[in-house]
Amino acid sequence: MPRRIESLFINGPAGRLEAILEEPETREPAEAALVCHPHPLHGGTLHNKVVHRLARGLRRSGCAVLRFNFRGVNLSQGQYDHGRGEIEDAAACLELLRARYPGYPVTLAGFSFGSRVALALAERLGHLAPGRIIAAGFPTVYPDVEFAVRCQRLRVFIHSTRDEFGPKPQLQAFFDRLWGPKQLLWIEARDHFFEGALDEFEAAVCNLGLQRG
Predict the structure, then answer these.
(1) Which class for 131: exposed (0-12), middle (13-18), buried (19 or more C-beta within 10 A)?
(2) In this predicted model, what pLDDT tens digit does every residue of 23-61 receive, in sequence order?
């Protein structure tokens, strides 16, 4: 069956947010996923190559996937808000996704800056958070990581072995601090953007499968 793709605008706290909703190519979705893109001030958009591969891996595993542009990016209204407003943007998109797929398990995912937004939103939502958080290229160079420590949902980190914004020793030490359910997958890649290993990255996402229970 043809893959279903819908371009839409979501009412966000600073205006409309540009988004794309895609369902799996070969079956009905069994889970829903929200994917957050990297830093808006450094060229991050919903079309980023890592975000695209993250979304496609999730679709291949059986998820309906919503990607969106944070405020001030492309057709999304508003201005960059240093991560605070971007968490609100993600919350608005998550609300729409849950309304579209009521009762479905939900994954919250992101790459780089987007992984920080995903984890921060999950920590803020507490017991109402999605059951799984996928953090690709989580940047450990930023000092504030306590929100990720406090989040007690399943946190899956997918990381390049040569990530310049999250060097392997730093990421491993951070991961070792975490309590609760967690998983760490290393991808042999050339840099933060999984250069030379995007196929392996996408396969790792797909192989995570759907949530259990």
Answers:
(1) middle
(2) 998 899 999 999 999 999 999 999 999 999 999 999 999
pLDDT of 2 higher than 70 = no
Distance of CA 20 to the CA centre of its chain: 14
Following CA atoms 34, 98, 101, 66 in sequence, which dihedral angle do they give, to the nearest 10 degrees? -20
Those residues whose C-beta lies under 8 Å from the C-beta of residue 116, and which sit 6 or more positions away, are 83, 110, 138, 139, 142, 148
212: confidence class by pLDDT, cuts 50, 70, 90: confident
Tell me the CATH number of domain 5-207, given options 3.40.640.10, 3.40.50.1460, 3.40.50.1820, 3.40.50.10540: 3.40.50.1820
- Per-residue DSSP letter, 19: E
DSSP secondary structure string for all residues of 138-159:
--TTSS--HHHHH--SEEEEEE
Domain locations along the chain: 5-207
Q: Could you tell me if 76 and 149 are in contact, meaning their C-beta atoms sit under 8 angstroms apart?
A: no
Distance between CA atoms of residues 195 and 200, nearest Å? 10
